[in-house]
Design a protein that fits this description.
By secondary structure, the protein is of the alpha/beta class. The protein is built from 12 helices and 14 strands. The chain has a domain of about 160 residues: Rossmann fold, CATH 3.40.50. Strands 2-1-10-9-11-12-13-14 form an 8-stranded mixed β-sheet, sandwiched between helices. Helix 11 links the parallel strand 11 and strand 12.
Length: about 325
């Protein structure tokens, strides 16, 4: 029977967010890709490390469809895994670091993960999660790190991605009644959401994105791939700290994402001041920020875009896109 799909291999390319790093390494090889504490990686180095990680995963027995749980802080490791795991045709299971250990163990067992990769901040938690659970723990960094040592000897072992609707990640909901619910993400959806985020927030090669948003949350709203797609710089923040955020903002950060509670922390921080030299583009989700908070952010030259999403929609689904006509509107009477 003749196929109804008019596309041929010469005219059809599978949509997968792993392609963004391939392109960035080719086009922006020497551009700064990641800042994680004292560590710096160019896009060529980022690409090389992600490909070596596929070899590490292969050596650990990870193959097509296997679930890999990750308990990681916002870090270069987490960014590398966002490319390496799907390049093994495996499935990423990002763990919410704020959940209780029983909830985390439930997610590991429910997803069927047999490998758990953790950064040093969560080494103790990862070790306890493995007790009575058939999951192997690999530490990514710190004194007992195994992942980094394995990477030095590894060679790339990528697998082709033939189906753009193949499973890419399972993200679990939190904050709802009952147990966390698993939401399945595919390659096509992550690719399109990443491009949408880059477009709506105006990311480009001059941008620096500060990771105040947890990368475990909806794969960082797909900014884990969007920043790379734009050839911008990822600046990792392993814990929310107003002082650190202000330090980065004063040294060239152009974008970040934060809940209204984090914005309030920034507005009230003793080191906050008026008149930043350049505007900062910020996306915020969840409950709408108050007019007072928005006014304060505007005074600080921080431009807020409010959005709303769900785990089931790869993160942001509705965006309050600013329209120029609104510039002429008067502020609420309470702020005059």
């Amino acid at each position: 029977m003749r196929s109804s799909n008019p596309q041929t291999p010469s005219s059809f390319e599978v949509l997968t967010p792993t392609r963004f790093l391939d392109r960035a390494a080719a086009v922006f090889a020497d551009r700064l890709a990641i800042v994680d504490g004292e560590r710096r990686f160019t896009y060529a180095e980022f690409h090389d490390r992600a490909l070596r990680l596929t070899g590490v995963l292969a050596g650990l027995g990870v193959g097509p469809g296997d679930r890999v749980a990750v308990l990681c802080a916002n870090s270069h490791t987490m960014l590398e895994l966002h490319t390496a795991i799907p390049l093994r045709a495996a499935v990423m299971v990002p763990l919410n670091t704020r959940l209780s250990e029983p909830e985390l163990k439930y997610i590991i067992e429910h997803s069927g993960a047999r490998l758990l990769i953790a950064t040093t901040e969560f080494a103790g938690t990862a070790t306890r999660l493995a007790i009575g659970c058939p999951v192997r723990v690999v530490l990514a960094d710190g004194q007992d790190a195994d992942l980094e040592a394995r990477m030095q000897e590894a060679t790339p072992a990528m697998l082709s991605i033939d189906n753009e609707q193949a499973l890419l990640a399972i993200n679990y909901t939190s904050g709802t009644t009952g147990r966390p619910k698993g939401v399945m993400y595919h390659h096509r959806g992550a690719y399109l959401q990443a491009l949408a985020m880059a477009y709506h927030t105006g990311l480009d090669t001059s941008s620096s994105y500060l990771w105040t948003l947890p990368m475990f949350h909806c794969n960082g709203w797909c900014f884990t791939w969007a920043v790379t797609a734009a050839g911008a710089t990822h600046i990792c923040l392993r814990a929310v700290d107003p002082a650190e955020i202000w330090r980065h903002v004063r040294h060239g950060v152009t974008h970040f994402s934060a809940a209204p509670t984090v914005l309030s922390m920034l507005a009230e921080y003793r080191g906050a001041h008026d008149g930043l030299g350049q505007p900062i583009e910020v996306t915020t989700g969840g409950a709408p920020p108050s007019p007072t908070l928005l006014h304060r952010m505007a005074q600080l030259n921080i431009h807020i875009t409010h959005l709303y999403g769900m785990t089931e929609t790869f993160g942001p689904a509705i965006i309050n896109q600013w329209q120029r006509e609104w510039d002429a509107l008067d502020p609420p009477s309470s702020l005059r």
